[in-house]
Amino acid sequence: MNIIFTRPLIEAEDLMVNFFSSNDKVIHLPTLSINSTNMQPVDTSKYDAFIFTSSNAVRFLKIKNNNKNIKCFCVGNVTERSLRLKGFNNTISATGTVNALKNLILNSEKKIKKLAYFCGDVISYELDKELIKEGFIVNKIINYNSKKITDISKESLELIKKYPPDITLIYSKRSAECFDEIVRKYMLAELMTHCRVMCISKKIEEFLKSKGWIKTEIFNPGDELIRIDQIKNE
Q1: How many whole angstroms separate alpha carbon 205 and alpha carbon 216?
Q2: How does the average pLDDT of the chain come out, rounded?
Q3: What residues make up the domain containing 14?
Q4: CATH number of the domain that 204 lies in?
């Protein structure tokens, strides 16, 4: 099976290795470039809890002390797992959507009021403003930025033409926008007619459908291997 990964290598490497070992043809086609904003280290003692809406925010986190017992609210399991690998042990995960994360925070302990919200420069939901309306004190800290990639190398183009993809994995709406632009820019639509585009949210799927993509479905991050194995056996 031919699979396109659109995440930056640092995020997709472990998953790609799993597919390499199963003899799938993997094409890495990153659609976003993620970079640190070189944030100043944060003093955990000034906050009751941290909020993370992506594993990128975890990757570029800096703290002044080694207190990793602070409460951490995570948008989903992948983000929570990233925190656990960094040594944070007081974590709780929502079901993968920011709205679910908001409700998780609203239903948290009453003593949690001062929050540090770590995120990227482009967000689709103003979580900090919504929480402030509910009486929380929120410091929004942008600790990474993302830049769209809409050009691909000659080597990647040749690989796609030689191995038309069966599956493409999309992890954000911006990534979906870039992927769609790349396909149109390099006139790859005909090669993609049998490609199943897997999206981590309904919003991404709706965008792709609005652009004419027919074979789309939603998957849970972390379940890629399971779902693709199921597709192979269909």
Answers
A1: 6
A2: 90
A3: 2-32+148-232
A4: 3.40.50.10090
| Whether residues 136 and 160 fall in one domain | no
Q: Which residues partner with 93 through β-bridges?
A: 74
**For 191-227, how does the pLDDT look when each residue is reduced to its tens digit (9 = 90+)?**
998 899 999 888 899 999 999 999 999 988 778 888 8
Number of domains within the chain: 2
Residues 113 and 166 occupy one common structural domain? no
Residue 18 and residue 222 in contact, taking contact as beta carbons nearer than 8 Å: no
Same domain, residue pair 136 and 161: no
Q: How far apart are the first and last CA of the chain?
A: 13
pLDDT digits (tens, 9 = 90+) for 114-151: 999 999 998 878 999 999 999 999 999 999 999 999 99
Instruction: Count Cα atoms within 13 angstroms, Cβ side, for 143.
Output: 24
Q: Using CA atoms, how far apart are residues 96 and 74, in angstroms rounded to an integer?
A: 8
Long-range CB pairs of 215-219 (<8 Å, 24+ gap) are 219/169
Cα torsion for 219, 221, 223, 224, to the nearest 10°? 80
Last residue of a domain, one of 145, 167, 189: 145
In the prediction, which pLDDT does 13 show? 63
Q: Which pLDDT value is given to residue 21?
A: 67
